[in-house]
Amino acid sequence: MKKAYLKYFTALLLFGSNGIVASYILLNSYEIVFLRTLIGSLFLIAVFLFSGRKPQGFHDKKHILYITISGIAMGISWMLLYEAYKTVGVSIATLAYYCGPVIVMAVSPMVFQERMTLKKLSGFAAVIAGMYLVNKNGLFKTHVSAGLIFGILSAAMYALMVIFNKKAKSITGLENSAFQL
Q1: What is the value of pTM for the model shown?
Q2: Count of helix runs (H) and strand runs (E) in the chain
Q3: 111, 162 in Cβ contact below 8 A?
Q4: Which of 9, 33, 58, 129 is packed most tightly, with the most Cβ within 10 A?
């Protein structure tokens, strides 16, 4: 249990520091995403090859298409997110980006035939209320900031990434991440 908790905590720290680290990188958002994707994919391919496993995902062409769409959505999501970091700041960009899972939750009854429960509805309402409270000053101005738009679009791309990733049921684990990157 302690080992799993340590892995989880480390993942949270790494992912949580993403915006702070990115704000100090003097590259364009597409350059950051390109290098992040290149380094990550090379690392995952090496780990996959050294694990001795054979690719299983080539059997279902439809699932390869889903993973490809998921990977494209992930890349676009990251570019929009890093652009939002630079234009509106890490806190608001991150808040907008974290609406992605809520978007998935909202469309899951239509896409995955999942039931909409009271907990899901209340979670959705809480996120909408939080977005409103954080951004209410910007909403009453004559224009919405480009950074907020980038953040919301990154959340939409995040949702597409999750949806298509979930549809690729035959490609799982490390192989899924390597294909996606």
Answers
A1: 0.82
A2: 9, 0
A3: no
A4: 33
